[in-house]
Every structure is written in structure tokens, then in C-alpha cells.
Amino acid sequence: MAIHNRSARGAILRPLALALGACLFAGVAHAQQPGTAPVAAPPTELPAGLPDYDADRALPELGLIEHRLDNGLTVWVLPRQGGLPKVNYVLAVRGGLASDPEGLPGMSNLLAGLLQEGTATRSSVQIAEELQRLGASMGASASSDGLLVMASGLSSSAQPLADLFADVVRNPAFPANEVQLAKTNALQSLKAMEAQPGYQANRAMGRVLFGDHPYGNTLPTEAGITGTDVTGLQAAHTARFRPDQALLVIAGPVDGDQALALARSAFGDWSGEGEAIAAVPAPDYPQQAQFVLVPRAGSVQSAVRIGRPAFDADDDRAIPAALANTILGGGFDSRLMRNLREDKGYTYGAGSSFGLRAQGGAFQAQADVRNEVTGAAIGEFLKEFEAMRTSAVQADELQRAKRYTAGTYLFQNQLQGAVASALASNWVLGRPVDYLSSYVDRTSRVTAAQVQAVAREFFDPARQSIVVVGDAGVADQLTPYGDFSAD
Amino acid sequence: MRCRTVLGGALALLAWLAIPAAAQQPDRWTMPIRTHTLDNGLTVVVSEDRSSPTVGVSVVYHVGMRLEPENRTGFAHLFEHLMFQGTPVAPKGTFDRVIQGGGGMLNGSTRPDYTNYIETAPVSALKPILWLEADRMKTLDFSPANLKNQQDVVKEEIRVNVQNQPYGLFFVFDMNRLAFSNWANAHDGYGSFKDLEGATLADVEGFHRDYYGPNNAVIGIVGDVSADEAFALVEEYFGGIPARPTPDRPDVSEPLNTESRREAQADALAQVPALAVGWKMPERGSADHAPMAVLSQLLAGGDASRLYQGLVKGREQLINLDGGMGWPLGHAWDYDGPTLMTLFALYKPNVDPDAVLAAIDEEIARIVAEGVPEDTLAAAKTKMLADYVNALEPFISRADELAKAQLLWGDAQTLNRVPEWVQAVTVAEVQRVARTYLTEGNRTVIDRVPAAMAPARGIAAPASAPAAAPTQD
Fold first, then answer.
1. What single DSSP character describes residue A115?
2. What digits encode the pLDDT tens for the residues B356-366?
3. Of A164, A284, B185, B246, which is most buried by a Cβ count within 10 Å?
4. Across the interface, do B100 and A155 touch by the CB < 8 Å criterion?
């Protein structure tokens, strides 16, 4: 479940946690003059004397180079000048949490975590020590549609890091003792996570939005962890990690030829075996809105999640939806934040997102609110949804959203590892190679009518499912919004 | 929860690290830093970097949780929220609207020794950002409605991060209460609801007057702008703000502990037991500082560290391990008073917490007795410095670290010196600081277990169980 944009402002703990939202890379750099713009509700006169924005400077070109090795491995090279002399590798494969065997949800998490816990020729501790010596980092993660393995290090260590990276990707040994330890710890971590209201809400929301489809059942279970074994991990690795189903991104101060040489040396003799993993089917979305109260005794807040099914990641509506979402629930200057936090004081942070996958997706809004305003908060969410549907967004508010997403794109572009991961994530989602580089321009052409069309369809209060994790005593406040007794 | 921002002399350091270990004289590169102090005492630190058409800005004030009044716990943080509530000329909402609408992101945070306000944006938004920061340094909109609204928001923040979460940050606030003796260091920086509700407009006005003058602040600016341009803009927008008297800083110091402190707690929400261990650290800038930072890396810095390999792997007692010097409210180089090295781990229910402590002590004792191999020390330093540089990649982080270094150390160039300090640390120094600071007498331990496990462990029921009914104070 993609949940973004929780506010951390006023944080004691998270000063630099800049929430990069669903509309991670977007926007346009048209100069909007802050001195001239009357704004959408609530109108705010800009102060006399506030200087205008300067003219925007050009957005950097990505300069992405695409190759395909003889074994079918797709290689994207992102040559970078300036910045830190670092190299980033990302290897993405198709097949993630939604491809885990029935009864073993979350197995991909174990698979990802165990890749660097031992290979045919290196022990877990050898890998950790080699990374430390190189001043490098490595990690892997699972999403619904794929797995990403990521490494970063100094450009001067590009070759030894590539060798280590390829070993981890290609030859994980899944040593029995490491698998056992990972399972034991995953069981305890699961218990710890299940105590968190957000985790409970995500679990309920996944099922509400996607029904029995694997997209709605990606969180681990005790049975799934217990049932995972070396044989199953090995089989999943073989079916998913194969060059014809994989993308390698190399980013750093390298040119195309150097990067290709690196790719060939590390992955050129890699070959796949057996059957590749089957594609995930499109979801058969539940037709009716559902209402779930997950009782949590003694809870001093209600975790409120409101959402409905949407569309898959390469749908044309994705870009207007990203802008509509920014206006509704992206960042501090969003309607939800202004209303629920800055006007009502119901919550530390309210926001929304479109969580899109290769074969489907969902819209979701969320906030954690104190018990006695749980019903009132839901009412405010639905009012804001309705306002987006009934009134066209004003030109300046749309323009602000475009500038915000453009700035987010620039920030992300500053961070080489973030760009490499974004490219790989888009590939996993089935988006075209130029998705990232064309995003800003495509966003700039979105009209208020397109935003409203998205809002009409996906923000319709009558179609929203609602999940509340909280004290059973809040039930009375929920009755105006649906029948929460069903689950 | 991870918020470690590390600092460093970015580009240089990498070039330097690129030299193979034990090679010839490293080719040091130094992060360009220029500073300028206005007549009103405001210091500006600038580092130009043209690799992205963006800018990072950080305005850091030299006031944090340590300096809040005794009946106003949490006030420094509440005040930070009020800094976003508008001014007489730029009403509530303007700040977010202009910065976010200019393509930027913004945030703020409160720590023991400072409060920071950070922005990153396309460089085209630099002027409005600086203008708005200057505007709220001059005055705020001291209205009852804004105060009440943010009292509510802060209470929701405490509910979401403390009261409604398993573990509830006990490894910060309970740890500080137990480990420290001086109230400035020991109290809850999030604050009690009673103190938060007791805050008045007069408190807000007084805090702004006393601590938010230009002479008590540093501005860091990093990115696609020259130092001269940045200095001129800061002069234009901030130059007319008069300096204001700042109260004398209280004595926050306290010695190392000589008797161990320990507490067991029941957690109404947790399902897995957790352990936090803290030791008081050397003074910032002392001869023991860099060796302790390196020792912290050796013990708890990632998967190759002694405690990860010894306790998560090896003895298989812990499920995970987090922590370090200054963690989680800072890092090894940004404190200005007594601080801790803290470890936080979930442990297996069938493991005795005393066995975990014994294992930690064993790993420490091994370093005290045997030292560490030179190549182990070198690898730990390499990883530490690589992480330090990576954390500086975003301009917003670099601006913040520069401003903090100027504020806390009195010299932003400190960022360019830390790498040398780290590289100079010897095995003998690591042994010395392990022996001096990581002692049982200087150690504080909190064992936090699920309520269901508490009776068997002889632990009383949760002292502050969440209200059972949905009524709130």
C-alpha cells in the first residue's frame, strides 16, 4: 500500500524526512509570479514586498542510454557529471509480492533480505565486511510487482562493487542457518509490526481495495513465514532472476561504453533457466464500498484510511491524477492538510496518494486523528473530495501544483541513487523508457478539466471504502458513513 | 525513525577515500565554504555547488529543548510549530503556499541544542524563501487561535509517535530521564499535555524575543548560487533586523555516571520485548570525541559491526539493532551538551535481557583487552566517512550541517576537519574510550516488555496505560 506524505513538520525526530509523494517526478517550471496570483480557497493575499520568483533554470536532461545484452538483459546507463564521484547499481526483476505462492504472502521480503546473506563463494559476514571495506552499501526490497537490488559506492570501486553485486544477484546460496534466522526474526518483526495501527490499517485496506487478488494480500503472515523454506526461495530466485526479465541501471560518472563493459563483465554470461514467472492477472475489483472498523483497545487515536480502486501505472490518467492528488493531499499546502491540520487541528498530518501497480492500483487518503473527532474527520475528507469534483481547480492552484511537482523532480534528480531507483521502479511498473524524462512536459499540459475528470471518478464520496483502526468506542461516530458492522 | 544525518566535506572526502588504503598522501579536496556575519550578528554560511539548479536553505536557531523553562516542557517544539503560523504581513498559509508553490519542500525540527528550519527548492525560489524567513524572524502572528490550533496538532503528534505506538520513543525520553540528572538534559522534550496547554501568548512572545533574534541564528545556503549573491540577498532581507539580548545560557553540564541505572517497564501496546542501553559520551571537541565516534561505528555501525555480528548474528539474541552516538535526535558531531550513545533493539522473548547485556559487555571488553585489527579499524573508518559524505548529497542536508557546525562549533569549516580527526584515530585511543565511557557505572538500561510478559518478569502493569475510553484530555 503506497502511503505517502505524512507530515513530519514540527518533528522532533525527522527533520530531513522529506516525504517524496506518489507524484514523485512531475511538474513544470513555468514562472508563476507570487505577487500576482489570487489563490483558490482559502484566498490569501500575498504580502506586499514579497519578491517574485526568478526565472526558472533549465531542467537537467537525464541523458539515459539503453542497451540490451546478448542474453536479453536490459541495461540503462545514466551518465552523470558533477555531484559526488559515486556509482549506483540497481537491478530490477519482474515478480514481486504479488507473485508469491498462495499461502506464503510476503515471501518476497525474505527472498530480498536473504540475497546478501551468503552466496556460493562468500559468507554473509564476508559480504558485510567487503561492503564496509569498499565504503559501499547494498540492499534489496520487494514491491508488489518486482524486486530491486541496489548498491552504491565510490566510482573508484565501481568494478569490485559490480562483482560483489552480481554475485549477490546471481548466486545467493540461501544457507540453511541464515534462512532459519531470517524466519525467526521475521516472525518477531511481524508481531512487532502488527502492534502498529498503521500496519493493521494497511492490512485491512489491502483486502478492501483488491479483494482476494494478490495485490491485496502482500503483507506477511505467520504461516507464510513459517512455510517459507530453502527450496521455495531457490525456486523463486530461479524463476525471477533471469536476464530476459531483468533491468540493470548504472548511474554515475561513467560513459556508455564504460558502463556497458561493466555490465558485460558482471552479467554478460548470466543465463536464465526454466520457466519465467507468470504475469500477475488484472484485479477483479470489489464492486461495493466496504466499511471496516478494526478494534484496537485503548487506542488514543483512530487510523483513518479512505480509498477506492483506480487504474494501473501506465494508464494515461496517471499524470492528471498525480496533479489532482497534489492539490488534494500532497504536502503542507494541500487542501487536506490545510483543513484537517491547520484549520481543525484534528491530526498531525493528513494526505492522499495514488498507489499504482503494473496491473492495477488504488487511490487512498489517510490521517491519524484523536478519538473524539474520528467521525468529524471523515466528514471533512469527504467534503474535500466533493469540492474537487464540483468546482474546477483554479489556474493558480493548478500552477502551484505543477511547480511543486517540478521541484520534487529536481530534488530527486539531484540524488543519483534516487533517479536510478525511480527508473527501475518505473520499469517494474511497465512504464515506457522515457516515462521519467517526459513526465515534466506531460504534466505541464494537464488542464483543470482533466484534473476535475479524475476527481469526479476517483474522489466520489459514494464510492469510497473506509477503514478505521481504533477504539471500539468510536463506532457511534461512524454510522453516518457506512455500515461498519459487516467485518 | 532513522534520522541520522551525517555531515562532511563531501566531494573531497570521496576523492580522498578513493585512494586505496595505505596508499600515498591522500589528495584532499575541501568543500568550499564562505562565511559572513552581518552587523546584527546573523552569520551566513554558503557553499556553492552548480551540479543542480536548486538550493538548500537552513535557518538554525541556538535554542532547543535544553533551554525551555521547567514548567513548560515541550515548549521549544511547540514554538517551532508556531513559526509556521504566519506573521502580521504574511498570514497563516502564506509560507507553505509560496515555498511549495515555488517548487520547494520545507520542514523544521527541534533538538536539544538547536531548532532548524529547512527548505529546498529550484533556485528561482531563493528570494521569496529568504524574505519569508526574515519576515518570521521579525515577528509572529501571536494569536490565540494559532496557539490553540498548534497545541492540538502537537498533542496529535505526541499521540501518533508516543501514546498510540508500541515502544513510544521510550529509548529517547525515558532514557534521558533515567540517564541524566540535570533537568535540562533529563526532561521530556515532547512535553506534558499539562505544560503544553499551559503555554500562553506571553510565553510565545518572550521566547521569540529572547531566542529568535538574528544574533542567535545561522543561515546555511548551498547550491546553484555564489557566496556573494547569497550574502547580498541575506543582507537585503535580514540586515534591518536589530540584534536582541539573549538570556545567559544555563549550565547544562553533568559528569559521567558512576553507578548504573536500570528500569523495567511494561508496554501496553508492544508484542515483542525491547531493550535500550545508553552511555554518557565525552564532551564535544574533546580528545575523546573522535575516538568515541569511531568506536561507536565499530560496535554498532551496520551489518559488519561487532554488535550486529555478535548479537543479531552469532548469539542470535536480537532481532535488530539500531543506534549510535546522539541517536536518534542527532549524530556524532552535532551536540552541545551531555549526550548519549544509545542502542535500541528488539530481542527474542526467550532471551534473558541480562544475557544481552553480558554479550554487549563481552564485545566491549574484547576491544578493551585486544584492541581491533588495523584493517578492521580502517574498514570501519572508510564506511563511516562514506556514510558521512552520502548524507551530505542533498543540498538541504549540506546547508543544515554547515549552519549547525557554525552554530555549535563556531566554525563551519569543522565539517572539513572531521575526516582528518576520524582518520587519525588509533587502536589505542579506541581502547581508551571504550574503557572510559562504556563502563557499567556509566550505563543506563531500560527493559521494555509487552504487558502480557510483565507479570512473569516481576514488572508492574503499565504506569501510564492509554485511556480505555475514547475520552481525551
1. T
2. 999 999 999 99
3. A164
4. no
